[in-house]
Amino acid sequence: MFSGSIPALVTPFRDGRFDEPTFRDFVDWQIAQGSSGLVPCGTTGESATMSIVEHDRVVAVCVEQAAGRVPVIAGCGSNDTLVALDHMRSAKAAGADAALVVLPYYNRPNQDGIYAHFAYLADHCDLPIIVYNVPARTVTDIATETLGRLAEIPTIVGIKDASGNIARVSAQRLACGPDFCQLSGNDDMTLGFMAMGGSGCISVTANVAPRLCADFQAACLENRWPDALALQDRLFPLHTALFTDASPGPAKYALTKVRADFPGELRLPMMPAGESSRVAVDAALRVAGLLS
């Protein structure tokens, strides 16, 4: 169902408010540039700083603007199972194709608690779920065996894996089956992830370089590995530069360089990228051929 380059969309803010016209233009640009899906209200979208009403509005606008041209995977995660369920129900009502649900953070549930969280969501809403594992942010980590149990639930269809452990791709294929959708959550590791059986990437870099990321994914999916390696080399400095300061600060800075009048504004506690990060982003954009 989900493959290729899928940007974890930044959310443009202007004067403290969601900039809907800019976001709609951004969605159109992403689709025109070859992105094969969209993720609104993920971590990169600063969902943690949004009200529930605002969060659901951003998802609804994304679905409306995409208009069925590509699937929309709505960020629906929360460390409160019932809040996550409310997000899923709102996303389904808006017409989203799936929910991206991060592991419960801060609470630090054990493996039984992680399983119960996702099973409860699946039992109470039939929107397909992509489990999002990002231990660096959540502290919790899903065991391969737990994911294998969850994969038996029909509406739990895949994982965004930002664990940084490439070996898990093979382990999870064996535990969940080859049809379970594995999406990389680390741009810099996606070449290896794809070679081991991944189907795509939920990407930060695709915000800034959607055509290059789409071409890279096409090369991987078509087994054109020399082409994929060449694109990896071209994109790698950008993959790195976008995390030289707290994300999505560097990504928003980069977008001000490649998109006319794109606002670089972030919400507290996030801050704009620092000087050394901006220098790194500028250099990486030149390597990618996106800045003269």
Q: What does the model show?
A:
There is one protein chain. With 292 residues, this protein is of the alpha/beta class. It has helices spanning 20-32, 52-66, 81-94, 111-124, 135-138, 144-150, 167-176, 190-195, 210-221, 225-241, 249-258, 275-288, and strands at residues 4-7, 13-14, 17-18, 73-75, 98-102, 129-133, 156-161, 181-184, 200-203. The chain has a seven-stranded parallel beta sheet. A two-stranded antiparallel ribbon has the order 2-3. The longest helix has 17 residues, at 225-241. The termini are far apart. The model has no long low-confidence stretch (mean pLDDT 97).
Entry summary:
The protein has 292 residues and is of the alpha/beta class. The chain has 12 helices and 9 strands.
State the end-to-end distance. 37 Å
Mean of all residue-level pLDDT scores:
97
| Biggest pleated sheet | 7 strands, parallel
Q: Count the helices. How many?
A: 12
Following the backbone from N to C, one meets helices and strands in this order, namely EEEHHEHEHEHHEHEHEHHHH
* Strand coverage percent: 5-15%
* Strand line-up across the major sheet: 1-9-8-7-6-5-4
Rg calc: 18 Å
